[in-house]
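**User:**
Everyone, produce one record:

**Assistant:**
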Amino acid sequence: MDATANYGIAGDWLYTNDPARPASDNRLRKWIGGMLDMQRTAGNTQEFLRNLKTDLFPEGVFGFTPKGYSVTLPVGSCPGDFAYAIHTDVGNQCVGCKVDRVPAPLSHKLDSGETVEVSTDKNSHPDPDWLSFAVSGKARTGILDALKRRSDHESRLQGSRLLNRALASAGTSIRELDFRRLRKVFNEFDVKRRDELFVEIGKGNLLAFAVAQRLLDAGTEEFELQNIDEAGPFSVRGGQSVVLSFAKCCGPVPGDSIVGLVSRGEGLKIHVATCATAVRALAHKKEEVIPTRWAEKTHGEFEVFLIVFLKRLKGAFADLANTLNNLDVGFNKFVIADQSATMLQVSLDLAVRDVAHLERAVQRVTSLPAVENVRRKAG
């Protein structure tokens, strides 16, 4: 009855334990149950869909429990994600872990085949910093839900601690700020009092570094620019961590002018400075801004998106693919659509080292006889 009331008519099937049921049915039952729990605790529809997409396409990282049971996780997952995959309560009460019997931080990036042992304490609660390394939809939803249910008193203390740590990197502290002169900053963060600001930081809704930056009006060198290298866990000045990713709307690569936007639950996302999405967000002050620049040395390849208008000629696509391959450009994905009776539109998801590498590729592709035009996706 409870299952039917909470989850609908499918609840009887979902929550009826039948030893004779095939293992595939049990896995499906567990997955659907997790999806329903994620929907129930998500803050809104967009958050649920974003987290669901993350879990639908995990790209195959497999961890094991000490008893040998396998757990499938998204690429980049950590022991925290593993704990939440076992059960939300295990994740919320996680206090430590061992990876292949060796103590490891909860932020350790897991490789396939590693065995994870999680330690729990029923009196423990999630920390807002966990959002800086958790990548799975279930983990991030569980953390945010627990933080929302946390008492305002606990959140206020945690938020005050995080903000003080961020301000310390600029040689000041909460006590040294005159908040009466900073009430316009409260309006920007949609709070009325200082304590409300602390609560929002403590619940993970605001990034302490971004708040400190606005309180100081970015007036010190310590708060000028953050060096960007690669995606993943990222520490801003002041010690607070955040998940860093590169925006799919514009695909920034080293050499582009960039800006960092912090949105609730998503971490720090890097955009090309002229990206239409970023410009709109800045104009409406919907997100917190972190001044950023590329590090002197960057590592690996970066995703970029091109649209190529290709004439319908024999061997045209093969020439395009060979040209990119000869330039050592990575081919992540492509989509071909009809543009007209004589033209195709090819959307390319590529991997390049920097903007110079990209420009060489564009020049060579543009010179192909079948190519009518090449355009970079710009937000």
Confidence is low (pLDDT under 50) at residues 218-223. Residues 34 and 234 are 29 Å apart (CA to CA). The longest strand covers residues 302-311.
